[in-house]
Inverse folding.
């Protein structure tokens, strides 16, 4: 409150600081109150006045949805919470690993290979959606092909979330950050990938907007 920048509005910011501290207040077994200030997330936004500052009831991210065609808001309905997936890998078109060579004798096979790469990508995203995810947060990127699948599923996808924010939200919503979908079981019986997404890794909340 002694800052020259906000000192003139110290009453406004003092109330906001107290309200924020009370939001994260917890009590131990002995009944003593504690306010873990590390749980208060401060976002700085340029272009507006200091009095436009507000206390958000939830966790605010300095990110936006990856596509304008995605819904702006998803709310819990019918007693079911909004499910959030936290992933720490790129969501992009599947590419063959380094060192793998493909010999093509027919030009028609090239298109089949490309189609299979797209199918693998779609299957990977579908596994996340089938687990129940309505919102997907990733620390990496999401390419245009993958965005199309999320838009069709009416899902909100957010890319380039900082690892610290991802861990905080996962902890607050009871979710788990997933760094790989690979399974120890190898390939599936039909020759496809054994990748899977565990529904228990999803976080839950009442609203994402």
């Amino acid at each position: 409150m002694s800052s020259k920048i906000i000192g003139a509005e110290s009453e406004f910011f003092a109330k906001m600081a107290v309200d924020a501290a009370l939001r994260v207040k917890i009590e131990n077994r002995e009944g003593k109150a504690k306010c873990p200030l590390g749980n208060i997330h401060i976002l700085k936004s340029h272009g507006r006045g200091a009095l436009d500052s507000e206390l958000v009831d939830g966790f605010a991210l300095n990110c936006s949805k990856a596509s304008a065609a995605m819904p702006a808001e998803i709310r819990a309905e019918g007693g079911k919470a909004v499910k959030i997936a936290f992933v720490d890998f790129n969501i992009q078109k599947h590419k063959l690993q380094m060192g793998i060579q493909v010999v093509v004798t027919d030009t028609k096979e090239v298109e089949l290979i490309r189609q299979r790469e797209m199918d693998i990508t779609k299957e990977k995203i579908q596994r996340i959606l089938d687990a129940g995810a309505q919102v997907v947060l990733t620390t990496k990127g999401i390419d245009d092909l993958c965005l199309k699948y999320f838009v069709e599923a009416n899902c909100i996808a957010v890319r380039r979330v900082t690892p610290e924010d991802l861990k905080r939200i996962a902890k607050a919503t009871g979710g788990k950050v997933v760094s790989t979908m690979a399974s120890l079981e190898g390939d599936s019986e039909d020759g496809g990938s054994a990748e899977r997404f565990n529904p228990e890794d999803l976080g839950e909340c009442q609203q994402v907007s």
